[in-house]
Amino acid sequence: MRWQDLRRSSNVEDRRGISGRGIAIGGGGLGVLVIALAVLLCGGDPSSLLQTGGPIDGQQVQAPASNSANPVQPDTNKQFAGAIMGSLEDAWKQILPKQTRVRYQDPKLVLYTGQVRSACGLGDAAMGPFYCPGDMNLYLDFAFFDELKREFRAPGDFAQAYVIAHEFGHHIQNLMGTMDRLQASGAGNRGSVALELQADCYAGIWANYAAAQGRLDTGDPEEAIRAASAVGDDMIQKRTQGYVVPDSFTHGSSQQRVEWFGRGMKSGSMANCQTFR
Length: 277
Description:
This protein has helices at residues 30-41, 47-52, 77-100, 143-150, 157-176, 178-185, 188-212, 220-230, 233-241, 254-267, and strands spanning 12-14, 108-111, 115-118, 121-124, 130-132, 137-140. By secondary structure, the chain is an alpha/beta fold. Helix 5 packs across helix 8, helix 6 packs antiparallel against helix 7 (188-212) and helix 8 runs antiparallel to helix 10 (254-267).
């Protein structure tokens, strides 16, 4: 992806190396659900988070791991994330009011290592990237990019950009009131799957915008598709437990995630992202 000369977002807060120990837990509700879904995405067990509304305490943050295998080198990680955020802001500042008449508002990207404070509770790197509607922040530990390449076999800078764009998609859902309606509906796993697939579709809409801006290189869409497929519930369950339980899906199958990302990228239209129907 041609990101080096993109505008850098001013909405990036760097908390890397700051301990999250001793955090009082607040938020709860759908915010905790979003973090719990992130735990499941990475193959973890979110039961204690769901039972208590968040971890009670955390451990001291470890020093950041080396990202030598990362296609975006450590000294440019923040520049890369800032550039992607800047592009996402520019895109949705136009798209959201034009297509929905909903007022756009910037989120913030919080960079951290190990553990992090959020309005939804104590976030942990094992959860993977997540969005907290309580403070409208995206949270990212760059170690996940190494895991994306090593464990999920989805390398490439556009695969990483897809991850940020997916979490930004949750912010758009928050602005649209989608998260509040889902929480009130009590829709369970099916609602969670629809929420995640719509975020994939919104990530595809940004990819459509980036392509129109001449920012994509040959092979970039394939990188995003490979990443979307790799984090499907069926692929994760096969990798972590050896079998698939469709009724337990919270993010959607690999096929579904690829399909909805593709719908957004092909059309560039939020009207084509109606996963709840």
